[in-house]
Specification:
Blueprint: H1 8-27, H2 33-40, E1 44-46, E2 51-53
Antiparallel strand pairs: 1-2
Helix pairs in contact: 1-2
Length: 69
């Protein structure tokens, strides 16, 4: 079992790679960036912590978690 703590920037970068991958696969190309961007809208990814969905403005939303020590 790992006890590493991952910060929000690292988690977001990980998630965006997989959202991009899913959009490229759905679009059937990585060369046509307009097609991939269009396909990004509504694309989902089952991230380790939450299911993400890319909105029309190409942003995602998720539950905020604030830690304290």
């Amino acid at each position: 079992m790992t006890t590493a703590v991952v910060g929000d920037p690292a988690e977001s970068a990980y998630n965006m790679v997989y959202l991009w991958k899913n959009a490229v696969e759905k679009a059937g190309t990585y060369d046509d960036l307009d097609k991939v961007r269009e396909t990004m809208i509504g694309i989902t990814f089952d991230a380790p912590r939450v299911k993400l969905r890319c909105s029309r403005n190409h942003h995602t939303s998720e539950r905020v978690m604030i830690g304290r020590s």
